[in-house]
Design goal:
77% helix, mainly alpha, globular, 0% strand, 14 helices
């Protein structure tokens, strides 16, 4: 992997991890088109740079994550994150082999992108009340659990964790901004746990030791992913409140069709 390739993958990670467009689908296209999808270091790299993306959420919303004078509210915040995290953690452990089987199928990713695209085109109409009567903040443990159950759907590759949890938030009467922000918050424990597990699996599977240039690539990747994710999160919230979800639906359909076309043309697309 070259520095240029590392930067491209980090930009893809930073842009797509928190947007409802499926980072998996974009990583498939990006790594496969650059011819590095089969490189064992590529998997380690794409997993590791998620730390940079996670840190961007904590940086933007640090007042939520760091206890201040109102310790009781901070405790409730973390309690709801844990409650929302539990469903995915349990299902992930119970159905690990079935999930891994889905992760090997590029066509599943494409179909999930297409179906999700249609849903997002209709989402503004379905939840038209969200901006007028939606809640500005999640204040219910029960609603947190329901959103966590929606996150389980994102275990199907191509669904997008962000998309699933935002829709979950809308079903619980949150407005668009609140639904998107809780999706970001929930990403922190979820992505941290998934990243830690993937790194552990990499080591247990006999992952090779890192060389000097690979360490440099990991540092560059995390820094780029961090700053790009900062921009993506701020821009997404602003755009979403003004324009809604429809553009993301059309974009998902384009990406899903692109994957199917490349797959049909014989490109060796791999989920890394």
């Amino acid at each position: 992997m070259t520095i240029f390739q590392a930067i491209i993958l980090a930009i893809i990670e930073g842009l797509t991890e928190f947007l409802p467009v499926s980072s998996t689908g974009h990583m498939i296209i990006g790594s496969s088109m650059m011819g590095i999808a089969s490189d064992p270091f590529t998997k380690l790299f794409t997993v590791s740079i998620q730390f940079g993306a996670i840190l961007s959420v904590v940086m933007i919303y640090w007042r939520k994550f760091i206890p201040g004078n109102n310790f009781a509210e901070t405790f409730k915040f973390y309690k709801r994150l844990v409650i929302a995290f539990i469903p995915a953690a349990i299902i992930g452990l119970l159905f690990k082999s079935e999930i891994n089987a889905l992760l090997e199928n590029v066509v599943v990713v494409a179909i999930a992108l297409l179906v999700g695209g249609v849903i997002f085109i209709l989402l503004d109409k379905w939840f038209a009340y969200a901006e007028e009567r939606g809640e500005n903040e999640l204040k219910s443990d029960k609603k947190a659990f329901v959103i966590g159950c929606f996150q389980v759907i994102a275990m199907i590759p191509g669904v997008s964790r962000s998309a699933a949890t935002i829709i979950g938030g809308l079903t619980q009467k949150l407005n668009k901004k609140a639904a998107a922000e809780f999706s970001f918050f929930l990403a922190v424990p979820t992505m941290f746990a998934a990243t830690a597990k993937d790194l552990l699996d990499y080591v247990q599977d006999g992952g090779v030791g890192l060389q000097g240039n690979q360490i440099m690539l990991l540092v560059i990747g995390n820094v780029v992913a961090f700053f790009v994710a900062l921009l993506a999160i701020r821009s997404f919230v602003s755009y979403l409140t003004k324009h809604g979800f429809k553009i993301f639906g059309y974009y998902r359909i384009i990406v899903g069709l692109a994957i199917l076309i490349l797959y049909g043309m014989g490109y060796n697309l791999q989920i890394i």
